[in-house]
Amino acid sequence: MERKQGEVDHLELERPSPLTDKERVMIQDSWAKVFQNCEDVGVAILIRLFVNFPISKQYFSQFKHIEDVRELEQSSQLRKHAHRVMGAINTLVENLDNAEKVASVLKLVGKAHALKHNVDPMYFKILSGVILEVLGEEYPEVVTPEVGTAWTKLLATLCYSVKAIYDEVGWTPPSASTG
C-alpha cells in the first residue's frame, strides 16, 4: 500500500465532527497509559512509518540512508524526533478542552512542516494510520475498537487542520520530475 511521491496531486479531506466529551475522555485515558512509554512508542511509530512507507524517510537527512531497522532504532536523531512527535501529541491530548491551544500547536506543526521542511501533507494522513496501527497492536487492552474510533476522529481532525494551515500558507507540492 505504499504510495509513490507525486502519485497524489492533492489531499482532500472532510472536516470531521467535533469530539464528544466521552471521546475526549477515552482519548485522554488511553493516552495516559501510552505516554508512560513515550520514547519507545514514538520510535515504534516512526520505524513502522519508515518500513511501510520508505519514501517518507526522504524528509530526514540525518537518517534517511539508514536501512537497517536496528540501526534506525538506535539513532539518536530518530529518538529525538520521536520524542518531539510524542510531545506534540501529548500537548494536543492534554488540551483537548482548549481549542485555542490545540489550534496553536497545529499551526506551529503545520507551518514548520509546510514552510521549513516542505513535507507533503499526505504524510500526516499516512502517519495517522501508522499511529492507530501501532497503538492498537501495542495497547489492545487500552485502545479498544471504541477508543480507536475516537482516536481516528482526533487524527482526522489533526490532518484536516494541518492541511488547512498548508492551504493558508500557500504550500504547493514540489513539481514531480518527468525525466
Explain what this protein looks like in three dimensions.
It catalyses: 2 superoxide + 2 H(+) = H2O2 + O2; H2O2 + AH2 = A + 2 H2O; Fe(III)-heme b-[protein] + nitric oxide + H2O = Fe(II)-heme b-[protein] + nitrite + 2 H(+); Fe(II)-heme b-[protein] + nitric oxide + O2 = Fe(III)-heme b-[protein] + nitrate. Residues 18-167 form the Globin domain. It is an enzyme of class 1 (oxidoreductase). This protein is mainly alpha-helical. The chain has one domain: Globins (Globin-like, Orthogonal Bundle), CATH 1.10.490.10. It has 7 helices and no strands. The protein has helices at 21-34, 38-52, 69-74, 76-94, 99-116, 122-138, 145-169. Helix 2 (38-52) crosses helix 6 (122-138). It is globular, with a radius of gyration of 16 Å. Residues 1-9 have low confidence and may be disordered.
Overall shape: it is globular
Mean of the pLDDT scores? 90
Strand coverage percent: under 5%
User: How many structural domains can be distinguished in the coordinates?
Assistant: 1
Proportion of residues in helical segments: 55-70%
CATH class: Mainly Alpha
EC number: 1.15.1.1
GO molecular function, one term: heme binding
Protein name: superoxide dismutase
Catalytic activity: 2 superoxide + 2 H(+) = H2O2 + O2; H2O2 + AH2 = A + 2 H2O; Fe(III)-heme b-[protein] + nitric oxide + H2O = Fe(II)-heme b-[protein] + nitrite + 2 H(+); Fe(II)-heme b-[protein] + nitric oxide + O2 = Fe(III)-heme b-[protein] + nitrate
